[in-house]
Amino acid sequence: MKQYIGSGRKILTDLLFGIPGVGYRPVVTKEYEDERKLLVICVNHHQKLIKICYLLNDIFSYGHFVQLAASVMAICVSCYLITIESDANERSFLLSYYIAHVTQLLVYCAVSNELSHWSFTILNVYHFVGDTYFSRVTKVKIEP
């Protein structure tokens, strides 16, 4: 089971890996020397980050699913045990377990929401890069 954060991630990944000339030393001309160096460094950095994210996603996706399933199961079991327990001390003990599991699930969802937010932010920045970062000629060269 894989976790896909954003639908545009695949498009952005394909665009970053499809840029020609970033696998070797930067091609420098007098006119675009600084821009080309920064572009190559930036693209190489993002390619490495994407590879690391794919690797981490493959490693941790099963563990995250198991943790989510265990939290939901523990919440259901705690609710059931609270309803059938007659002793007040035991009921308060089970209630603390229930609250802890619900809190864990809410934190898990909040972190997932934060990851989704930042992944979409990265995609939006890519689409709305202004002319202050790269010249029009450089943008035309990297567009597919």
TrEMBL record:
Organism: Popillia japonica (Japanese beetle)
GO cellular component terms listed in the entry, alphabetical order: plasma membrane
UniProt-recorded name of the protein: 7tm Odorant receptor
GO MF, one example: odorant binding
Membrane-crossing segments per the record: 59-83, 95-111
Signal peptide extent: none
InterPro entries: 7tm6_olfct_rcpt
Domain of life according to the entry: Eukaryota
Keyword field contains Methyltransferase: no
GO BP annotations listed: signal transduction
Subcellular location: Cell membrane
Keyword annotations of the record: Cell membrane, Membrane, Olfaction, Receptor, Sensory transduction, Transducer, Transmembrane, Transmembrane helix
Membrane topology reported for the UniProt record: Multi-pass membrane protein
